[in-house]
C-alpha cells in the first residue's frame, strides 16, 4: 500500500484523514478525488496542498471514466471511500443524490477495484445502518436503516460485501459513530450549534432533545481507519465508536457553557421525521486490533468548539452562500413556530 485514492477527501473526515496519513506515512502518496459538492471544500486541504506527495483530482465517483483515469494516472493501489451525501435532513428533503453517490458511486468504485486488481477497497460507513437501537449494535446485527441517508449507506455496505464474496475484491468496512472536529460543514448539529451560538443565533433543538448519539473525535476516527487498513482482516466489518453516548441536551449545554452563552438561545423546534432515538456501537472487535478512542466527550467537544471559535474565516464564508437557502428551507418555518425549552 503506497498510493491511496481518498474519495470524498475534500469533505470533513476525508480531509482530516488525508492530513493524518500524509503526516504518519512519509512514503505514501495521497490522491484526493472529490466532486466538490456543496460539502466539498479545498480550504479543508489548504495546509497540505503544497506537499509533493499530495494530488487533487476533481471527479465524480459515479463516473467510471473519471475514476479509472485517476487510478491509472496515479498508479493507485488502494481506495478509501469517504465520498457520500451525508446529511439526514437533506436526505429527507430530497434523496436523489444519496442514491446516486452512496449506492451507484460505491458500485463504480468496486468495479474499478476489481478491474485494476487493487490491494484494498475500504468503505467508510456509519452506525446509522443499524437503525435505532436499544443496546450496542455489533457487526453481525441486522441492518435496519430508517432514513433515506442510512438506507443508501446500508445499500453501499451490502454491495461491498457482494464484491468481496463474489469477485474476491479485498474489502474492509468501518462503521463509525457521530464524528466531530475541525472542518465539519455547519449543517450537522455540533458545528451548527457552535457557529450559531458564536453569532448569537437560535439553536434549533429537534423535539425533546433526549435523542442519544455516541460522539467520536475525528482523529480517533482517522486512526481507526488506519488500523483497519493495516491490520484488519479482508471481508470484515469493524465498528468505530467513541464510548461517549450523550443526550442532545447535554451536547447543547456543553457548547453554551464553554462559550459562556445564554440558555435562552435554545429553541425547541418540530422534530425530524423518523428521528432515531439512539445510536450505540459495541467496539470489542476493533479493540482487539489495539484501537480505542483517545478522546473523552468533553475533550472532543472542547477541542472542536475552540477550533470553530478560532477559525471564523472558514465557516463564515460557507454560511454566507447557498447555505442560507438550505437554512431557510430546513429551519425557517420551524423557528417561526418554535418554543422555549429549558436545558
Ligand atoms: P462530508 O459531507 O463532509 O463530505 C463528503 C465529501 O464527499 C465532500 O467533499 C463531497 O464533495 C464529496 N462527494 C459527494 N458526492 C461525491 C461524488 N459523487 N463523487 C465524489 N465526491 C463526492 O462528509 P463527512 O462527514 O466527512 O463523511 C465522510 C464519510 O463518513 C461518509 O461516507 C459518511 O457517510 C461517513 N460517516 C460520517 C460520520 C459523521 O459524523 N460525519 C459518521 C460516520 C460515518
Ligand atoms: P446530526 O448532526 O444531523 O447527525 P445524525 O446523522 O446523527 O442525525 O444530528 C445529531 C442529533 O442532533 C440528532 O439527534 C438530530 C439532532 N439535531 C437537532 O436537534 N437540531 C438540528 O438542527 C440538527 C441538525 C440535529
Residue stretches low in confidence (pLDDT < 50, at least 5 long) are: none
Query: What count of helical segments does DSSP give?
Result: 12
Q: What sequence of helices (H) and strands (E) makes up the elements?
A: EHEEHEHHEHEEHEEEHEEHEHHHHE
Strand percentage lies at: 15-25%
CATH homologous superfamily of the largest domain, by name? NAD(P)-binding Rossmann-like Domain
Helix content estimate = 40-55%
Rg, Å, rounded: 19 Å
Task: Please provide a written account of the structure.
The protein contains 12 helices and 14 strands. The mean pLDDT is 98. Strand 5 (120-126), helix 5 (148-167) and strand 6 (171-176) form a beta-alpha-beta unit. The chain has helices at residues 12-24, 64-73, 88-93, 96-116, 148-167, 189-198, 218-231, 248-259, 284-287, 297-310, 312-319, 323-336; strands at residues 3-7, 29-34, 54-58, 78-81, 120-126, 171-176, 179-180, 203-206, 212-214, 216-217, 236-240, 245-247, 266-269, 339-340. 46% of the residues are buried. The protein is α/β, with parallel strands linked by helices and 343 residues long. The chain folds into 2 domains: 3-180 and 217-240, Rossmann fold (3-Layer(aba) Sandwich), CATH 3.40.50; 189-213 and 245-275 and 296-340, UDP-galactose 4-epimerase, domain 1, CATH 3.90.25.10. Helix 2 packs across helix 4 (96-116). The strands form 4 sheets. It has a 7-stranded parallel beta sheet with strand order 3-2-1-4-5-6-11, with helices on both faces. Helices cover 43% and strands 17% of the residues. Nicotinamide-adenine-dinucleotide binds next to helix 1, helix 4 and strand 5. Residues 7-8, 10-14, 34-37, 39-40, 60-62, 82-84, 86, 101, 105, 124, 126, 153, 176, 178-179, 185 line the site of nicotinamide-adenine-dinucleotide.
Amino acid at each position: 500500500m503506497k498510493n491511496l485514492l481518498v474519495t470524498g477527501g475534500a469533505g470533513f473526515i476525508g480531509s482530516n484523514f488525508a492530513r493524518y496519513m500524509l503526516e504518519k506515512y512519509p512514503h505514501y502518496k495521497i490522491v484526493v478525488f472529490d466532486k466538490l459538492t456543496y460539502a466539498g471544500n479545498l480550504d479543508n486541504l489548504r495546509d497540505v496542498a503544497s506537499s509533493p506527495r499530495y494530488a487533487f483530482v476533481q471527479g465524480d465517483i459515479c463516473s467510471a471514466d473519471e475514476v479509472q483515469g485517476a487510478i491509472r494516472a496515479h498508479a493507485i493501489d488502494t481506495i478509501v471511500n469517504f465520498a457520500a451525501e451525508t446529511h439526514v435532513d437533506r436526505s429527507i428533503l430530497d434523496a436523489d443524490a444519496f442514491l446516486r453517490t452512496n449506492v451507484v458511486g460505491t458500485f463504480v468504485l468496486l468495479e474499478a477495484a476489481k478491474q485494476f486488481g487493487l490491494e484494498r477497497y475500504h468503505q467508510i460507513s456509519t452506525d446509522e445502518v443499524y437503525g435505532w437501537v436499544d443496546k450496542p449494535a455489533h457487526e453481525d446485527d441486522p441492518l435496519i436503516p430508517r432514513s433515506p441517508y442510512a438506507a443508501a449507506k446500508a445499500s453501499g455496505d451490502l454491495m461491498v460485501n457482494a464484491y468481496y464474496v463474489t469477485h474476491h475484491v479485498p474489502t474492509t468496512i468501518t462503521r463509525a459513530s457521530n464524528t466531530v472536529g475541525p472542518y465539519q460543514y455547519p449543517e450537522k448539529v455540533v458545528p451548527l450549534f457552535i457557529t450559531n451560538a458564536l453569532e448569537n443565533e437560535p439553536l434549533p433543538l429537534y423535539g425533546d432533545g433526549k435523542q442519544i448519539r455516541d460522539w467520536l473525535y475525528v482523529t480517533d476516527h482517522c486512526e481507526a481507519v488506519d488500523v483497519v487498513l493495516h491490520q484488519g482482516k479482508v471481508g470484515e466489518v469493524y465498528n468505530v465508536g467513541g464510548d461517549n453516548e450523550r443526550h442532545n441536551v447535554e451536547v447543547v449545554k456543553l457548547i453554551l457553557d464553554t462559550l459562556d452563552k445564554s440558555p435562552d438561545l435554545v429553541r425547541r423546534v418540530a422534530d425530524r421525521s423518523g428521528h432515531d432515538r439512539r445510536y450505540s456501537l459495541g467496539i470489542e472487535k476493533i479493540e482487539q486490533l489495539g484501537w480505542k478512542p483517545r478522546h473523552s466527550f468533553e475533550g472532543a467537544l472542547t477541542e472542536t468548539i475552540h477550533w470553530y471559535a478560532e477559525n471564523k474565516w472558514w465557516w463564515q464564508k460557507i454560511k454566507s452562500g447557498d447555505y442560507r437557502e438550505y437554512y431557510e428551507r430546513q429551519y425557517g418555518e420551524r423557528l417561526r413556530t418554535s418554543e422555549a425549552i429549558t436545558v
